[in-house]
Design goal:
Layout lengths: L1 H24 L4 H24 L14 H4 L13 H17 L2 H25 L1
Length: 129
Amino acid sequence: MKTFVTLFISSATFGIVIAAVYYVWSRGEWAGTLLLGLMAIGLTFASGYAILAERDADLDGDRKDLENADAAGEDLGIYTTSSAWPILMAFSVLVFLIGAVWIPFLLAVGLAAMLLVLWRLGAESSRIA
């Protein structure tokens, strides 16, 4: 829990500092400052919740004597490490986003490509099991 709280509090502090720098740099632009401040508030809230509600939690990350092999837990699923589909998914999302911004035709092409890639990635994952 200590590691979690330290990470979130340091990230919230970073958000506050960046919000202040952004406010000064942008000469009072409030939308970005507000969003960066909300990020800091959210991280502070999560840290406060962890401190108050989960103070008795015993997390593996807090133990200095623990090795990675000792912390290994349950199997989380099948991950294809030598597959081209994840990079093709990234390119499909890129085409989709370009289409959303500039060319509506690419929006449809990107969506169709994402669906195709998801279908093939799912088929490949089920075949490995």
